[in-house]
Write a structure and sequence with these properties.
Blueprint lengths: L2 E4 L3 E4 L3 E3 L2 E4 L6 E3 L2 E7 L1 H11 L13 E7 L3 E8 L2 E6 L5 E4 L2 H9 L4 H11 L8 E4 L1
Antiparallel strand pairs: 1-2, 1-10, 2-11, 3-4, 5-6, 6-7, 7-8, 8-9
């Protein structure tokens, strides 16, 4: 899984990949750059890829597709968009939450940001408590 944390200045995420409770790597690059935007997801990897592809109009989403993932589109100078699926299809909306986090270490990261830590520092802290968060913490400046 993944831990993502962001505010209006930066977007941070870890680089650990796990499967069945086993660390596969701590060196994954989870951000995919497409058409000037970065796409980063939390959840099941193939569902993240499918959701990004559908958002870009490259693939149709089956009516019963209910992904166990969230995808974030990060556009420098604009902000962070959340992409998901609801009853009417795919949605993409600008997030304006202030401090926000998601993924397996989201509670640790959000608490760290509430105590004044940056998103990068928040994900670093989540790494100390969440076994599914690890590796290098990467940052996209907004």
């Amino acid at each position: 899984m993944t831990t993502i944390a962001f505010n209006d200045k930066e977007f941070a995420y870890d680089s650990r990949v796990t499967a069945d409770g086993i660390v596969l790597t701590d060196e994954d690059e989870k951000a995919v750059q497409i058409e000037g935007a970065y796409y980063i997801g939390v959840g099941i990897a193939y569902e993240i890829d499918k959701l990004i592809s559908a958002h870009l109009g490259k693939e149709d989403i089956p009516e019963d597709f209910s992904p166990e993932c969230l995808v974030y589109k990060v556009v420098k100078g604009e902000g962070v968009y959340q992409i998901g699926v609801h009853d009417e299809g795919i949605y993409c909306h600008l997030t304006k939450y202030g401090n926000y986090s998601c993924g397996t270490g989201e509670h640790f990261a959000l608490a760290a940001m509430d105590l004044g830590k940056s998103p990068k520092e928040a994900v670093e802290y989540a790494k100390t408590r969440c076994i599914y968060t690890g590796g290098k913490v990467k940052v996209i400046k907004l």
